[in-house]
């Protein structure tokens, strides 16, 4: 038997605030909250790990006292589903993201940072 990717844990200073940002980015909802942890996931697949086949991963935001210091070694890539890349970048900037330079040079993706500085990429190709 193999494992499946069901969750990504993200350390942060403000779990509720960062969860709200990512809920707006991904059209997710808060599924559990308490003791410095907020878990968000897709409302379309609430059963997650118990469902056969691939599932949209949940994001778990956990409060930690230390701040982010260097570039992420792991990051999220997002694909706009109903608009072009430039429109999606503008929407994400309006939600609180900001441009980030990680030395990407001239690339087809746009690197942004969430409100706590975690880098993520907005890809150019739309996925259904």
Description:
The protein is of the alpha/beta class and 128 residues long. The chain has two domains: 7-63, Signal recognition particle alu RNA binding heterodimer, srp9/1 (2-Layer Sandwich); 76-122, no CATH class. Helix content is 18%, strand content 28%. The strands form two sheets. Strands 1-4-3-2 form a four-stranded mixed beta sheet, covered by helices on one side. The chain has a four-stranded mixed beta sheet with strand order 5-8-7-6, covered by helices on one side. The longest helix is centred in the first third of the chain and has 12 residues, at 15-26. The radius of gyration is 15 Å and the shape is globular.
Index terms:
128 residues, alpha/beta, Signal recognition particle alu RNA binding heterodimer, srp9/1, 8 strands, globular
Rg calc: 15 Å
Mean pLDDT: 89
Work out the helicity level: 10-25%
Order of helices and strands: EHEEEEHEEE
Query: Which topology of the largest domain does CATH recognise?
Result: Signal recognition particle alu RNA binding heterodimer, srp9/1
What is the count of helical runs? 2
Portion of residues in beta strands equals 25-35%
Low-confidence stretches: none
Structural class: alpha/beta
Largest sheet: 4 strands, mixed
Number of domains: 2
Shape: globular
> Regarding CATH, which class of the largest domain?
Alpha Beta
